[in-house]
Amino acid sequence: MTKADTVLLNGRIFCGLAEGFVDALAIGAGKVLAAGPAAEITALQGPGTKIVDLAGRAAIPGLNDAHMHLLPLGLGMSEVNLRPEEGVRSVDEILRRIGLAAKGKKPGEWVFGRGYDHNELAEGRHPTAEELDRVAPDNPVYIKRTCGHVGVVNGRAMQAAGIGHNTPSPDGGLIERRDNKLTGLLAESALRLIVEAMPRPSLAELKAAIEKAGHYMLAQGFTSVMDAGVGMTAGMAEIEAYEDVARAGTLPVRTWVCIYGNADGIGDEAHAAGYRFGREVGLLRYGAMKVFGDGSAGGLTAAMSEPYIVGEPENRGIFIYPEAQMHGYLAHYHKLGYQLAIHAIGDAAIEQVLSGIEKADSPEHPIRGRRHRIEHCGFLTDGQLARMAAAGIDPVPQPVFIYEFGDLYVTNLGQQRADASYPMRKWLDAGLHAAASSDAPVCATDPFKNLFTMVTRKTKRGTVIGGGETLSMEEAVHAYTALGAYTQFAEDSVGRLVPGQLADIAVLSRDIFSIPVEAVENEVRCDLTLLGGEVVFDRLGQFAAAAQ
What we know:
Structural class: alpha/beta
Strand content: 15-25%
Radius of gyration: 23 Å
CATH architecture of the largest domain: Alpha-Beta Barrel
């Protein structure tokens, strides 16, 4: 009889939504060897078997962040942190932090900040270019709102990007002016003017960012991710960085590559160079192509069929591309064999994207089985949901958007539209593979906030947004594991803890299936992460001590 390399005992092990719970699990050769009653599993122990004593804790399949930005997350760890939970609650605090960072820079060096939310600031507004100029007069400054679709720059940054008084807003973007004066606020495609002007990170910096962010994800129980836009910051150098770390064996997590294919992207160049659907290098797998359809609901740039209820009275958001151009991109990348992973948040953008995918269907290139995705898919209609189910097109949402931005959705769109957003219950009941994700660094990667939101539909302020869309904790974990695997064509190897699947496992500090859900929000951590049966994170050092 084959003996186990590692055995998990004395806790509840969630194997999958259909499989339910077991008392014990055995690992051999990097895969799940058996899962079942403790007596059955202990029979597989041998003299060299390592024991993971769960001591009443829960173990689940390794988490899968099905839409995040791994490399930008790593790069952002060296930027000025402006997130509300880090104490940034006013424009003055933003200015203080940016000014302090500028003092540590040489004249002309850029200062970057990320994560502020104007809705959480005491002033209820964005900073201005003039304010940033006062605290950093000798440095270009670029700070991004938490959504990443809106940012503010100072005069030095606008000068570097060639933005002047008469520079028009580009198609699909905004260069804001008030009282005929540049405010420094840029949105959507206008941000590319800054990205093209700022210094690009070196290959070494890119590789270090991937590794740093990957280990950060392992520490939270994630074993798989999708990087949803490789090439957005440094072009083809990002693919080179991923290839290098994958070949070297230093890529920490299983990564599904989504190539940035916008007009300014690298889609065709990457395809010509051989980076196509199905390519694998170590833990790296290629498959998806990204195109942006609109912006964000929090930033008032998601394309809606009805106007927002704040701001300009007729504002319906921004389409990044006209319909014909968007449909051309979708047909082109569909024919090239990529999975489409298209950013669309507002119902008008979802319609543009959904109709384009449907239009790309042909006997030679059917869309069925391609697992095309609409990323975010926040404010869709019931009719659009039904069409997605019929065509096999899946949403990849961020339930944590409800937690972080739900109150702002009510402000911007009203209670009724906010309640209908990100309908996890409807998607699951319709058979869609709505894989949970964070869109980090847009939102925090903390999986327990995401799980809490799926089960309660509560914002961080305690507001219930669409209470009929709640899931059970088991369904929420399913959305964060097995459904993510499905969207990455990996359901046969990861996402459940069943014999033959890879032993990607997260051991949590508590049993999230039995404690009050309020405790899940703030009190649970990942204690142990296994990737292919190997311990890659051990928060308490208990496994290392027990193995000695």
